[in-house]
Design brief:
Blueprint: E1 2-6, H1 13-22, E2 26-31, H2 41-47, E3 51-55, E4 71-74, H3 81-86, H4 88-108, E5 113-119, H5 142-155, E6 163-169, E7 171-173, H6 184-195, E8 197-200, E9 207-212, H7 213-224, H8 228-231, E10 234-238, E11 244-246, H9 247-257, E12 262-265, H10 280-285, H11 294-307, H12 319-335
Parallel strand pairs: 1-2, 1-4, 2-3, 4-5, 5-6, 6-10, 7-9, 8-12
Antiparallel strand pairs: 9-11
This protein binds nicotinamide-adenine-dinucleotide.
The site of nicotinamide-adenine-dinucleotide has 29 residues, from helix 4, strand 5 and strand 7.
Length: 344
């Protein structure tokens, strides 16, 4: 299969792309490469011409990009709540209109399968525990509202020749070539190691489901291999029941790995996001798949910090801080004319 992955150089993408290549697919990555191209360096060295990288923006793709493409995995976008709030109009142009135009482009070009990266954050403030794909959605952020709206837009295309599937990922953890230290398991592990301290925001009682980044990659690969009738028009929560934890409990687990860690409760308002999710639908589809535990991810990230494999001070691993930096650079360049005159 030829698979086009938008946002393929990001945290999930840079883990997914080698998994797809290993499975024998050829892959086209379309990305702005905000976090660099090097995240796909090892995959490019290993798989050569099977991997094509295209620097492009999902808001202005040309239909020719879809030539010969069998499946699209749509991961591109601003990927967390605070980064989305930096510039709501820009966020909507990418996470709403950009993603929706990619869906329409793919459908018009005759792409057979489309997998959209949604999020369990669409449940927002869950009414109950054990939320299923049929539960009501209560998105409490612009990020989550864009995800819910894009799901609706995707399913409006069902029955027009393209098999459409939305995957609601739990909060992801674990090592990836583009690291993210703005995700709960990763950041708590990093702070425990570098500062000896974990800060718990929002009261700590809020439920959150988690999933390892390699499990996300393998699930996407396996969804692409499912019969159309099993996945067309379907939403799947992606994660594992055992990885639903309260945030304070997550802090205790990190402290179990680094026992001298101090846990500090931040005096913040209760977190509006509180969701405990059921994953039975996915596990019924893929009964043999095992999912990595949170403790596995903590040890994995800790090992990489201890060995120096990842640099905790690299700005690119902090999504919002990096986007703020990029927008300041862009503003500076916009203010300077080509002849060097300062315009504003
Ligand atoms: N990581 C999680 O916990 C999680 C959970 C649920 C859903 N998701 C979703 O999965 C997807 C991937 O998340 P991630 O963690 O890999 O995020 P990421 O920020 O690491 O990756 C996003 C990628 O999209 C690219 N991108 C951004 N705007 C673009 C544009 N206009 N055109 C082309 N490329 C653009 C970036 O350069 C980056 O490589 C996102 O849609 C995210 O919302 C992630």
């Amino acid at each position: 299969m030829k698979v086009l992955v938008t946002g393929g150089a990001g945290y999930i993408g840079s883990t997914l792309v080698p998994i797809l290549l290993e499975a024998g697919h050829s892959v086209v990555v379309v990305d702005r490469f905000y976090f660099g191209k090097e995240t796909l360096g090892a995959a490019s060295d290993k798989f050569g011409a099977k991997l094509t990288m295209v620097q492009a923006d999902v808001r202005s793709l040309d239909e020719s990009i879809m030539a010969g493409v069998d499946a699209v995995v749509d991961l591109a976008g601003i990927s967390n709540d605070p980064s989305c709030e930096l510039d709501p109009e820009l966020t909507k142009s990418i996470n709403l209109r950009g993603n929706q135009s990619t869906m329409q482009l793919a459908q018009r070009a005759g792409v057979k399968r489309y997998v959209y990266a949604s999020s369990c954050s669409v449940y927002g403030r869950g009414e109950t525990t054990g939320l299923t794909e049929k539960s009501n959605l209560h998105p409490v952020s612009l990020y989550a509202r864009c995800k819910a709206d894009c799901e609706t837009a995707l399913f409006a295309l069902q029955g027009r020749g393209m098999c459409v599937t939305a995957l609601r990922f739990a909060t992801v953890f674990g090592l990836s070539p583009r690291m993210r230290f703005d995700l709960a398991v990763n950041v708590m592990t990093k702070n425990a190691y570098t500062q000896g301290k974990i800060t718990v925001d929002g009261g700590g009682k809020q439920w959150r489901p988690f999933v390892h980044v390699a499990d996300v990659g393998e699930t996407i690969r396996d969804i692409l291999g499912q019969p159309v009738e099993s996945v067309d028009g379907q939403v799947f929560n992606v994660g594992h029941e055992a990885n639903n934890v309260r945030v304070l409990n997550l802090a205790y687990r990190v402290r179990d790995a680094l026992p001298t860690t101090q846990i500090v409760m931040a005096p913040t308002d209760p977190d509006l996001r509180d969701y405990n999710v059921e994953f039975d639908k996915l596990h019924e589809l893929m009964p043999d798949r095992l999912f990595r535990t949170i403790d596995y991810g903590i040890q994995e990230v800790l090992g990489a910090l201890k060995s120096g494999e990842i640099d905790p001070d690299d700005r690119r691993w902090y999504t919002m801080r990096h986007y703020v930096f990029l927008s300041e650079v862009e503003r500076t360049y916009r203010q300077v004319a080509l002849d060097g005159r300062v315009l504003a």
